[in-house]
Amino acid sequence: MSMLYGAIEAGGTKFVCAIGDEEMTIKERVSFPT
Predict the structure, then answer these.
(1) 4: which residues sit within 8 A by CB, 6+ positions away?
(2) How far apart are CA 34 and CA 11, in angstroms?
(3) Are 3 and 25 in contact (CB under 8 A)?
(4) Which residues contact 28 (CB under 8 A, 6 or more apart)?
(5) CA distance linking residue 21 with residue 28, whole number of Å
(6) What is the reported pTM?
(7) pLDDT digits over 1-34, tens only?
(8) CA 29 to CA 19: how far, in whole Å?
(9) One-character DSSP codes across 5-18
């Protein structure tokens, strides 16, 4: 089982959330307005 990482980018108009693995492959990404 590989290590997973979570990320949140909070900008002025939206949030972007992502999950990636240790090989820097994005597994899931979602964006929603603030």
Answers:
(1) 19, 20, 21, 27
(2) 9
(3) no
(4) 18, 19
(5) 10
(6) 0.76
(7) 789 999 999 999 999 999 999 999 999 999 999 9
(8) 7
(9) EEEEEE-SSEEEEE
